Amino acid sequence: LALYLARRHLYEMFAHAMAEDPAECCGLLAGRDGRVERVYRLRNAEPEATRRTRYTIDAMDQLRAMREMDDQGLELIGIFHSHPRTPSYPSATDVARSRMPGTTDPLYPGVAYLIVSLEDPARPYVRAFRLDGPEIEEERLVVVADE
Ligand SMILES: [Zn+2]
After folding, report:
1. Nearest Cα residue to 131 out of 101, 89, 102
2. Which pTM does this prediction carry?
3. Is the separation of the CB atoms in 107 and 123 below 8 Å?
4. How far is the CA of 114 from the centre of ligand 1 (A)?
5. Tens-level pLDDT at each residue, the chain (147 residues)
6. Residues lining ligand 1 (ion), CB within 5 A?
7. How far is the CA of 147 from the centre of ligand 1 (A)?
């Protein structure tokens, strides 16, 4: 399994992460058949005190983005956020929040979780993970040329 995205999609996620630094950024990736077509930069609704270490996608932002995807025949294929000071790996909170409360059932089955790390500000990078199962699994990201 792999997720395909263009260089410009990477740069959009990096730009969002840098703009929100030192807070975590968040957003959605929409596309078809595992190919990203659109990056949604959304607001982190966490309060000031916690937004450096966790994220909650603003509910209205998410609703608007999901409606637009529906209208354009796109699917939700990824959820991204940033780790401003730590490596790109899901935190216990990230894993817990990817599931239905009190269960191990994924909230968004089949959706990849991408984490942009700004640990080294000169070299932002992103990794993708599947949180559907009991284990955290890395998903391959394939960067394709911009059309
Ligand atoms: Zn995280």
Report:
1. 89
2. 0.96
3. no
4. 9
5. 899 999 999 999 999 999 999 999 999 999 999 999 999 999 999 999 999 999 999 999 999 999 999 999 999 999 999 999 999 999 999 999 999 998 889 999 999 999 999 999 999 999 999 999 889 999 999 999 886
6. 91, 94
7. 30
